[in-house]
Amino acid sequence: MTGFVIDASILAGFALADERPPRAIRSIERLRRETAVGPTVLFFEFRNVLLVSERRRRLTPKETEGLLRIIARLPITIDAGCEERRLMSLARRHRLTAYDAAYLELATREGIALATLDAELERAARAEGVALIE
Q1: Dist. CA 110–CA 108, nearest whole Å
Q2: Which of 29, 117, 119, 19 is nearest to 75 (CA)?
Q3: Mean pLDDT of the chain
Q4: Which among 3, 15, 18, 58 counts the fewest CB atoms within 10 Å?
Q5: What are the φ/ψ torsions at residue 10 (nearest 5 degrees)?
Q6: From residue 58, how far is each of 62, 125, 131 by CA, in Å?
Q7: Model confidence at 85, in pLDDT bands (50, 70, 90)?
């Protein structure tokens, strides 16, 4: 059973050693006993964070490859479904990007908690009654 929706900010917070916010660590630790899910955009967003980190010389390509191997072993599944009307409504109502609204749409559709470090997404989740991983 899927335990919670995980977003790219959590994975980035865990992967980038100089950041590691407590919420990111707690969310990753939950993966020892639960499965997480993310929308399709999670795959691309996380890889983009790694590429930007390489360009800023925070990571080397070898470190990126190592992080991708670590993340691939985590119990995170990708959900390719999306209710477009709900996504667009959430994005408009909370002034979110479509990318961020995809995480919220998935959490509301599945009725599960959301793990994020994004303040705007967190605010929107609270307004929608979505539980947050604290």
Answers
A1: 6
A2: 29
A3: 94
A4: 18
A5: -65, -45
A6: 12, 31, 33
A7: very high
Q: Are 37 and 78 in contact (CB under 8 A)?
A: yes
Alpha-helical regions (H) of 8-118: 8-15, 22-30, 41-55, 61-72, 84-94, 98-110
pLDDT score of 19 more than 70: no
Q: Which residues contact 83 (CB under 8 A, 6 or more apart)?
A: 105, 109
Q: Which of 23, 6, 25 is nearest to 76 (CA)?
A: 6
79 has which bridge partners?
Answer: 39
pLDDT above 60 for 88: yes
Instruction: For the beta carbon of residue 97, count every other beta carbon within 10 angstroms.
Output: 12
Q: At what angle do helices 8-15 and 61-72 cross, to 10 degrees?
A: 120
Other residues' Cβ atoms within 10 Å of the Cβ of residue 35: 15
Q: Which pTM does this prediction carry?
A: 0.92
Give the pair of three-digit tokens for residue 57: 């010389």
Residue with tokens 């993966």: 31
The dihedral region occupied by 95, where left means phi > 0, alpha psi between -120 and 50, and beta the remainder, is left
